Amino acid sequence: MQLTQKERMYLQDAKSQEELCIAKYNHYSGVVANQELKQILQWAGQQETHHLQTISDLLQGRTPQMGGQGHSIPVNQIISQTTSGASANRSRSPQGRSPQGQTMQASTSQFTGHGVLTDQQICQDLLTMEKAVSDMYDHAVFESTSQPLRQTLNHIQKDEQDHAFALFKFMEQMGWYQPQ
Ligand SMILES: [Fe+2]
Ligand SMILES: [Fe+2]
To answer: 16 Cβ partners below 8 Å, 6+ apart?
Structure first.
């Protein structure tokens, strides 16, 4: 696939964004306290790894094969997997308590200002990152001059929106995010 200068610029930007996404998901999945959150982060991290491969293929002039990704789990599946356990737990505990029995207040009061992030702050950071990445892909789609490139970037952008949705649903369930 021949790329225009602008397309190449966006793909290079996307590549470094995906590398950052992988680094964050890998790092955070190793430090979060909540096991359901850990599962969401591992799932998203695997998809980011696939995105990086796709972007690298594009930069090398190869047309990537979207679809056929054996490890790609739909977002509703990951949400139902992670939330089914949590709602069962929540029915035994008061509103706003996590399965580990941490209250939202406890989570915030753990904030020391010395480099230790709470699960809630990690979710906020990742949600902000996903928004920025999705915005970037939105611009990249509009600058794409060929249908295969457009479809590939569209597909990746939808994945990013799914990551944000999974994070949002988790935060909502924990009482950390109330839509206005
Ligand atoms: Fe990604
Ligand atoms: Fe993502």
So the answer is: none
Q: Which of 17, 26, 20 is nearest to 153 (CA)?
A: 17
Hunting for tokens 């029915």 — which residue is that?
Answer: 91
Q: Look up the CATH number of domain 1-66+116-172.
A: 1.20.1260.10
Segment 142-157, tens digit of pLDDT: 999 999 999 999 999 9
d(CA 117, CA 7): 36
Mean pLDDT to the nearest integer, 92-119: 55
User: Which tokens sit at 89?
Assistant: 């737990």
Q: How far is the CA of 166 from the centre of ligand 2 (A)?
A: 10
Q: Where are the domains of the chain?
A: 1-66+116-172
Q: How far is the CA of 29 from the centre of ligand 2 (A)?
A: 14
